[in-house]
Write a structure and sequence with these properties.
Oligomer: homodimer
CATH topology of chain A: Alpha-Beta Plaits
Strand content of chain A: 25-35%
Distance between the termini of chain A: 51 Å
Number of strands of chain A: 8
Chain lengths: 200, 200
């Protein structure tokens, strides 16, 4: 494996994810969300288990955030599960999307409470606990509630701040590591959400 | 990080997962599945995003397979997303469950077609592509359809063979690597499943 440190956002980034609306009407929630999202700056393929998008880092986060936001806007309990990757051996197809500029094309600035479990794996690095701790501090600065849980870190608060934290954590980590993987499970409109305000 | 090779199944293994039934009635599907599953041999904790179970390797796979099987049995479109981990720095709580024997306590041998995306990450290893290829061959021997996709491997076929493949892949890999993470997204009763038999 090539362990060289690559140059930030010039590398192709991907996310394989699923959106699960907890309703019999899941097909129209998913299709409706996709219709509202501009996916023109990423390569995209969907099958019976997941959707894979690939392109430049900002657009991969822009599109996943927008799809989650649109699905959550329906009010249904919606869960997003995804794995973001960069530097995977053999990742080449879809390079045409690497010529896109940095401008995000979706506006996902809706108010939406969400909770997220995320885990960051800089493969081949043995100092990743420090990186995770730095990102935990950054999440707190964004007003998110942060909790350390087994195998992951839990973030609670505004969905846009959660995605901003995920994007920053991934960006910073991949600047120092050739191959980085980050998992995120994000939930909206759950009857079991325990918001911070519940205690006030 | 401690990179020593540890002795197989004597280590604590965990899985953080969510089960998403695509129905308004998701609460009763999840609770109903949990009621039918014997979780006595694992440490378990559930919150608003996910459930975490921890214990000996066979029981972590036994319980996740059983919960998926019970939820799928309802006939609803059900998705399971989970991350299996072993050797995570700081993993200690719940060690009391490590004294359990090897006997699995759930019977999940139902006929259930499923499709699964899985990805195996032996952290700190640079030869993991070979390990994955070996497990792909083993999956084919079990009668599963195997497809290489971006960032993952897709398995299609009987759910019990999918879980057997996941358990074997994880077992073999963690025998040679201190810290191993494996993600799995498994889908049952999806209207977009394209079964192998569709082409016959």
């Amino acid at each position: 494996m090539d362990n060289q440190v690559c140059n930030g956002t010039s590398r192709i980034v991907g996310c394989r994810f699923s959106v699960h609306p907890m309703t019999e009407d899941f097909v129209s929630v998913i299709l409706g969300a996709l219709e509202e999202v501009d996916t023109s700056k990423v390569w995209m393929q969907t099958d019976d288990v997941s959707t894979c998008i690939r392109g430049r880092l900002p657009h991969v986060f822009d599109v996943t955030q927008a799809i989650f936001a649109q699905a959550a806007k329906t009010g249904h309990h919606v869960a997003f599960s995804g794995t973001y990757s960069v530097g995977c051996p053999g990742d080449t197809e879809g390079d045409v999307y690497m010529s896109e500029d940095d401008t995000k094309v979706n506006n996902s600035d809706i108010d939406q409470y969400a909770a997220c479990d995320f885990a960051l794996y800089p493969l081949g690095s043995d100092s990743y606990m420090d990186m995770i701790m730095e990102q935990v501090e950054a999440a707190k600065q964004r007003g998110l509630a942060v909790e350390s849980i087994h195998y992951a870190t839990k973030l609670r608060g505004e969905a846009k701040e959660i995605f901003a934290t995920l994007e920053q954590a991934f960006t910073v980590t991949q600047e120092h590591n050739s191959h980085v993987v980050m998992t995120a499970s994000i939930s909206a409109n759950s009857p079991s959400h325990k918001k911070e305000t519940d205690n006030e």
